[in-house]
Specification:
Elements lengths: L5 E4 H6 L2 H11 L6 H17 L6 E8 L4 E9 L2 E8 L7 H17 L7 E8 L22 E3 L4 H11 L8 H5 L7 H12 L4 H4 L5 H21 L2 E8 L5 H11 L9 E5 L2 H21 L6 H9 L2 E3 H10 L8 E5 L7 H11 L9 H9 L6 E8 L11 H13 L4 E4 L1
Parallel strand pairs: 4-5, 5-6, 7-11, 7-12, 8-9, 8-10, 10-11
Antiparallel strand pairs: 1-2, 2-3, 3-4
Helix pairs in contact: 2-3, 3-5, 7-10, 7-12, 9-10, 11-12, 15-16
Length: about 425
Amino acid sequence: MLNYYYGDSIENFISKTTNEIIGEITISNQFDSNNNQNKSWKLQIDILKESLLGQNGMIYFEFSIPRMGKRVDCILIIQNIVFVIEFKVGEKDYLSSNYDQVWDYALDLKNFHKPSHTALLIPILIATEAKDVQFQFIETSHEDNLIKPLKANKTNLSEIVKSCISYQKGNITIEGDEFIKGSYSPTPTIIEAAVTMYMNHTVNEITRSDADAVNLTTTTKTVSAIIERAQDENKKIICFVTGVPGAGKTLVGLDIATKHLDKEKDTHSIFLSGNGPLVAILQEALTRDTVFRAKELGEKITKSKAREGVKAFIQIIHHYRDAYLVDSKAPYDHVAIFDEAQRAWNKEQTVNFMHRKKNQPDFKYSEPEYLISCLDRHKDWAVIVCLVGGGQEINTGKPVFLSGFMQLKILFLRGRFLYHLI
């Protein structure tokens, strides 16, 4: 499984017919392509072929940013520049929402994709039917090799690319293969922002629960002690934190995730949920809260920047899963908190989905077993915290996590994991 639909040298890309390239893209995208999408790719390919004549480098279509659940229309790598390109085919205006979209892609790469930490990133919004606008290179104030998005159309992309190459600093050449295979890795500044953001938040919807503060504190301390034990003794441990709806399991999970984001101690953690709306609500609530608190202090922070910090410790579990189908290395995190673990799919459900939707004919795991296998790639230690709610099972109407739990017991008997029930 690749994290892009098409990749090649620019020279080969130009020499191939448009139909050949679309054919390769649609094979990788066999479940989603349609006539409108194919027409859009055709126009994109034609524009890029004309604009990249004489350039040497690599080109990738539909590149998936690790664990972010987003695909960039096109990544161009020329010398030491990574162009992050978003096409809006047929669009006559440079809409702010489209500008924000390509800017978010660039921020996600810079903040969470390891090879992008040091690369010069230049995002470009291409509204194919828009008028020419004067462009200028505006670096962010952080001196992190990130340029504010440029605006292009179907006729002036070549000029913009050439100007960017003239603007570039340094003589380092980025290897396309190494860049495209780069792992998920948050920058230290993003980790620091995430911890600060959560510890200072004032979001009532997150803090409110039916459990008393003493109980929540005791549970969090117990899990933290288990994490410290796992690290000190090089053990792999699974914890089950159980409770009725409203008991505060999600709050415990978020507390644990942020308390163990410490690069110096080499403890990296992530709160994962398969509940997309919950993730969206948590991310939006914390983002707005951060912007509001900054405003009260007379400071200014954009929602895009605030949201990047939230993404460092709250993510969708399916994006996590897909990233490690591509990346065979151990996850960045040593600690993973799985929210609503009772909703995990059994082996039959997971295998059926992976065969049909992810083109993984050899996949043979239940959802719990696969996620556990990802953490088991660590050679030293790992902790899995499963937040399990009673009476909230879905899919078959039965607690399908039990099928995964049986696999946990097998792993335990092999001596690979210890498990605790809290």
